Amino acid sequence: MKALFVIDVQNGIVENGEFNEELNKMKEIIEDCKKRKEPVIFFQHLDEEQESPLYEKSHGADLHDSLAEYADYVVAKRTPSGFYETELEDILEDLVIEQVVITGFNTEFCCLFTAIAAFDRGYEVTFIEDATGTVNNGDTYEMKDLDIRDFIGTVLHWSDMIEVLDYEEYMDL
């Protein structure tokens, strides 16, 4: 069975970028999974630092209203990996999940770390490159023209371990 991961679609991220395209793609993928009765697992990154946009006791940490209603499960996490010190493995085992599909925020942190951690645990992983997004850009990394999504997608694709698709390719399956 397959499960969809919707990573860190939280107010503190969505309200700090222009993510309408990504959110629309995530919504359509979620609705497709719901039709196929595949579980949708949301992740909620919680920070202890009050300065963080994802501070655990703030509006920023809440799941964004545009997609929150679709969550079958919500996994709270404190690191970029959805697996580290969470109940995720128990959920996946109970549901007899063999494949996970990655969408969400931030591409180069939580999406990447969770995809690699899933692969390391023996799951088949599909990463939907253009259904991820980030608040960061090339300037963040002092690489002016860096396209973060494309870079991460290319690295994962070249690894030959994780399937990387764009939204259209995924929906055509």
From TrEMBL:
| Domain annotation Isochorismatase-like: ranges | 3-142
Protein name stated in the entry: Cysteine hydrolase family protein
Any GO MF annotation of the entry: hydrolase activity
Species for this entry = Oceanobacillus kapialis
Known InterPro entries for this protein? Answer: Isochorismatase-like_dom, Isochorismatase-like_hydrls, Isochorismatase-like_sf
- Give the similarity note: Belongs to the isochorismatase family.
Question: Has the keyword Hydrolase been applied to this entry?
Answer: yes
Q: Which UniProt keywords apply?
A: Hydrolase
One Pfam family this sequence matches: Isochorismatase
Look up keyword Hydrolase and say if it applies.
yes
> Which Gene3D superfamilies does the UniProt record give?
Isochorismatase-like (3.40.50.850)
